[in-house]
């Protein structure tokens, strides 16, 4: 465990690396209530900690600006993403204060993509106008479903009408780049219900759509209910049918399927998330946030109070709890796993430039085997998942990182 700025700056790769991150992730762990399927680092009932948490975020950003003894303003930031939890529970004043600190300690591009996640029912139109004025230019709204019964099952606090109202308020506040989150593959969910959700989502004309199959995490209330037999397990074949339906419908609607779970109007792809999928460097601040810097992955303290107390202490301690060295083998495997999620795939020239090895040299037999199975396609320039490969993506990925 290494958690002081002094210790971290002794890592030569971090000191000397030239490819410093241009993407910043800010984690806000507060939520109104914990959904039964959620295993994110988020906590309800911590409203009393928000002001101190905001101050801690500003402190952590200032410490990172001093990273490796470099002067402030050296780190150029092209994307900022506030995730959670529900970041808008920090309040518009708190989010603006953190954004202002980013601009004070880093060189934030004038055209930077600045995303904030939010949920229906937690921000009114005045708050959204203030967010837009503060420099937030992209919202990701967690609607998940337009069926009130499904929303109750998922533990969401909003209704379908509330979701549409939230969307309308965001448009009226001046947001021209909105992402819509929807979830499919719920236990017992009929395909027709999913088709209706898609159609109602398309009626809102989002610039970006994220579609996620419900993932059952064993330590969540939903996971325990399924394990005990109180709730039927989702049917993977039905989920696959829903996915294929979405692919066909969104293509007809003019959306670019640029990542396994993400579609966008051309030119509205999420620049921040592309940093992750292209396995590039990024800085994360906040409780439980991760960073990827040169050949190291860093993880912050997970508990919000412990995170705050560390940054309220004397000295220059960063809230980093763990540092993992990413060797070349792991870096190559993660580049394959993440890059294959994209429609552009893994580009041969990019791989060679980064690792000094061709794809054939690094993974020739594996690639050939997956091609024979109809899961990968290779045109000599890019390696991509086939349509069948997208349905069996996890089986493909484990061949590179297993």
Overall description:
- This protein has 402 residues and is α/β, with parallel strands linked by helices.
- It is 43% helix and 21% strand.
- The chain has 17 helices and 17 strands.
- The strands form 4 sheets. It has a 9-stranded mixed beta sheet with strand order 9-10-8-7-6-5-4-1-11, sandwiched between helices. The protein has a 3-stranded antiparallel beta sheet with strand order 12-13-14, with no helix packed on it. A 3-stranded antiparallel beta sheet has the order 15-17-16.
- Strand 12 and strand 13 form a beta hairpin.
- Helix 3 crosses helix 12 and helix 8 packs parallel to helix 10.
- The longest helix has 17 residues.
- The radius of gyration is 21 Å and the shape is globular.
- The chain starts with a helix and ends with a helix.
Radius of gyration: 21 Å
The helix count comes to: 17
Name the shape in a single word. globular
Strand order of the largest sheet: 9-10-8-7-6-5-4-1-11
Q: What is the typical, i.e. mean, pLDDT? A: 91
Q: What structural class is derived from the secondary structure elements?
A: alpha/beta
How does the major sheet shape up?
9 strands, mixed
Q: How many strand elements?
A: 17
End-to-end separation in angstroms reads 25 Å
Describe the oligomeric state of these chains in a short phrase: single chain
**β content, as a range?**
15-25%
- Helicity range of the residues? 40-55%
Task: Report the uncertain regions.
Answer: 1-7
